[in-house]
């Protein structure tokens, strides 16, 4: 999650968008005018910020309003400043290039899954990629798991069931948590 956060903010235009949205909600037209960018470019940057959970979308008729997602910022600041989280960076494993390519083959331009692979060999990298959207050591409600999965694909139930079945997430009494990668089913 932190890596996605830093990638989302690693662009001057996205930083400027966050700055504008931090003050108040804006629509794409206002943001494009304020930054002297084209609307499709602004929409692309907003999609990346939404994917990272930094920006929320509110529809009002045909107008889309973008606001800062304060809860995500608070959660990220706690995670970033925690000593154990900082130490965990030293042991982070980079996904294998082959696994990364497999995931990229199933993504749309907006970072959402086109489909769910039918074969187990192609399914596992997708599930591992999804599982990495959840922080180890944190417990999630089913609603939080659903919200995270819905940013990637509309079929949250299938992915939730598969993540539990592959021992990537554990579930008890409507609460979920990510299991260590060493426990994941191959």
Which descriptors apply to this entry?
186 residues; alpha+beta; Arc Repressor Mutant, subunit A; three-stranded antiparallel β-sheet; 10 helices; 6 strands; globular
Number of domains: 2
Q: What Rg, in angstroms, do the CA atoms define?
A: 17 Å
Q: Would you tell me which CATH topology of the largest domain applies?
A: Arc Repressor Mutant, subunit A
Question: Can you tell me the overall shape?
Answer: globular
Q: What order do the helices and strands follow?
A: HHEHHEEHHHHEHHEE
Strand line-up in the sheet with most strands: 1-3-2
Strand percentage lies at 5-15%
Please tally the β strands and state the result: 6
Q: Tell me, rounded to a whole number, the average pLDDT.
A: 85
Q: What is the end-to-end distance?
A: 23 Å
Largest sheet: 3 strands, antiparallel
CATH class of the largest domain: Mainly Alpha
Uncertain regions spanning at least 5 consecutive residues? none
The CATH level-2 architecture of the largest domain is identified as Orthogonal Bundle
Structural class: alpha+beta
Helix proportion: 40-55%
Count of alpha and pi helical runs: 10
Structural overview:
It is built from 10 helices and 6 strands, in the order H-H-E-H-H-E-E-H-H-H-H-E-H-H-E-E. The strands form 2 sheets. The chain has a 3-stranded antiparallel β-sheet with strand order 1-3-2. 53% of the residues lie in helices and 13% in strands. Helix 3 (28-35) crosses helix 4 (39-51) and helix 7 crosses helix 8. It has helices at 2-9, 12-23, 28-35, 39-51, 70-81, 83-88, 97-105, 120-131, 142-150, 156-165; strands at 26-27, 55-60, 63-68, 139-141, 169-172, 175-178. The two termini are 23 Å apart. With 186 residues, the protein is α+β, with helices and mostly antiparallel strands. It has 2 domains: 2-72, Winged helix-like DNA-binding domain superfamily/Winged helix DNA-binding domain (Arc Repressor Mutant, subunit A, Orthogonal Bundle), CATH 1.10.10.10; 93-183, Arc Repressor Mutant, subunit A, CATH 1.10.10. The longest helix is centred in the first third of the chain and has 13 residues, at 39-51.
